[in-house]
Task: structure prediction
Amino acid sequence: MASVEQVTYNSPDGATMGQSSTEKISFYGSTPVALQSINSAISTTASISTAPYGFATSTEALQVVNAVSTMAYALKQVGLVV
Result:
């Protein structure tokens, strides 16, 4: 097995990174950033369950696309995806 360093001490209550939302963290040598936020108010009322499948309105579809894009951006910022 490769030589690795344990960053926690196996506390029964778990581990945390960042004591506050303004404390910056990163992974894989990326530049540390503070907690990213996302608008969680996606107002989907119902998806269309017959062909063509999708959302009831284009606004609902855009909200989902924007939420996924924001999550992908946040993951890239901390270095978890490229």
